[in-house]
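WARN retry 2 of 3 for item q-0093 after timeout on previous attempt; input resubmitted unchanged.
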Amino acid sequence: MKVLEVNVTNFVELVLNSEKPVLVDFWAPWCGPCKMIAPVLDVLADETDSVLIAKINIDENQSLAVEYFIRSIPALVLFKDGKVDKKLLGVQPIDNIRQFIQ
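OK item q-0093 returned
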């Protein structure tokens, strides 16, 4: 499955109303560590069907970053049943992220 591009317009539909858990990567194009984690998320999106993987550009969707208290990026936020379940900050090895989403 492909990493979903999420924004203010489709956030409720794709993340909050999702039947599956959703791992959301809060990122920005100027963020070096965000660029490092992107290929890892692509791999995870291809290997799992139990969790959706999504990205939110905080420069274009500042209200979502504020609403979910994103203070540094990359920030991985796992949503379950429309609510924040847990957060993981910074670049992480793929095995840490696999464990985080289980």
